[in-house]
Each structure stands twice: as structure tokens, then as C-alpha cells.
Q: What sequence folds into this?
């Protein structure tokens, strides 16, 4: 471990992970700590995957860090707020079937931070046994505002008045 690496430290006394930077600041406590550069202590192999690594993902990771849950994040930006906070961070297109599918195969449970994801990949992962929350069928409704409004109407959920148009010309005839 060098002074340029952020280390995550496991305390035998508090049974918590905490970040120390630089690591040399605690070297005199070697008898009390086990050092693991860029890794964490986990008691299970459970992996939670998050599609999207924005601010909501960052808040989710902060809570999960206290729960002994391994995490993986897929985000299109290498400058994601979640980078460096999850055990696994991958840069990839959330709308690309292969990127989402391959990433989902790493996870026991998959959730979303943003609804703009490839639903077909989530459906296939769900068919193969990966738990996906929210369900891909729910995401299809969320992604299509027409379906969303119709769902509200069918289920007597209060919503503003709306009308669906098939084309711009139909809208202009209105």
C-alpha cells in the first residue's frame, strides 16, 4: 500500500470499514487493523447491481456500505459519482443489450438508478433467474409516458387529463 492509494480498513473492534488516506497515517496501529488496499471485507458472496451511477446511486451505496452488501455499478460515464464507491464499477451503455446483460450476469439482484435502461436485457436476466427490481414490465410502463398515463387511468390513480396522438398532424388537427 502506498500513500497514493486509498485504503479501506477493517477494524476487529468496531467491525466496520472506514477509509483512511493516506494509509501511512495509521501504520502505527498495525496490530489492531488488517489492511486491504482497494478491497472490502464481506461475509457473503451476494452482489447487488445498480444500473446508473448518479446521485441516487451514490446515496444508495452510502447506505449499503453499512450493510455488508457487495455492490456493482454500471454507468455510461467514467466520472460517475459512484466510481470508487462500489466494489465493481463498469463504464457501459445502459441502453445497450449486451452491456446490461453482461453486467447483470455478475449480480444476484439488479436494480436501477435511472429508468433509461435496456428492458429487453433485464427481461432476459429475469427469465434466467436474476432478481430485477423494479420488474422489467414496470420499467416498460415508466419509460413510455403514454402507457404510464393509461396505467394510472385504468387503476384509478389520480392524474392530469391527457390525450394520446398518433402523429404530429393528428395533434395539429386536435
A:
Amino acid at each position: 500500500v502506498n500513500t497514493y492509494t486509498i485504503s479501506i480498513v477493517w477494524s476487529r473492534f468496531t467491525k466496520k470499514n472506514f477509509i483512511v488516506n493516506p494509509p501511512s497515517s495509521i501504520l502505527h496501529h498495525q496490530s489492531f487493523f488488517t489492511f486491504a488496499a482497494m478491497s472490502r471485507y464481506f461475509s457473503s458472496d451476494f452482489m447487488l447491481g445498480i444500473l446508473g451511477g448518479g446521485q441516487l446511486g451514490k446515496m444508495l451505496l452510502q447506505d449499503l456500505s453499512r450493510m455488508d452488501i457487495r455492490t456493482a455499478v454500471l454507468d455510461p460515464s467514467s466520472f460517475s459519482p459512484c466510481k470508487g464507491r462500489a466494489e465493481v464499477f463498469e463504464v457501459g451503455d445502459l441502453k445497450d443489450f449486451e452491456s446490461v446483460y453482461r453486467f447483470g450476469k455478475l449480480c444476484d439482484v439488479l436494480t436501477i438508478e435511472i429508468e433509461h435502461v435496456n428492458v429487453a436485457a433485464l427481461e432476459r436476466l429475469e427469465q434466467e433467474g436474476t432478481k430485477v427490481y423494479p420488474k422489467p414490465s414496470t420499467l416498460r410502463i415508466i419509460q413510455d409516458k403514454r402507457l404510464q398515463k393509461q396505467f394510472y387511468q385504468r387503476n384509478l390513480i389520480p392524474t392530469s387529463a391527457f390525450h394520446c396522438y398518433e402523429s404530429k398532424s393528428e395533434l395539429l388537427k386536435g
The helical segments are 55-64, 97-104, 119-127, 136-143, 145-154, 168-173.
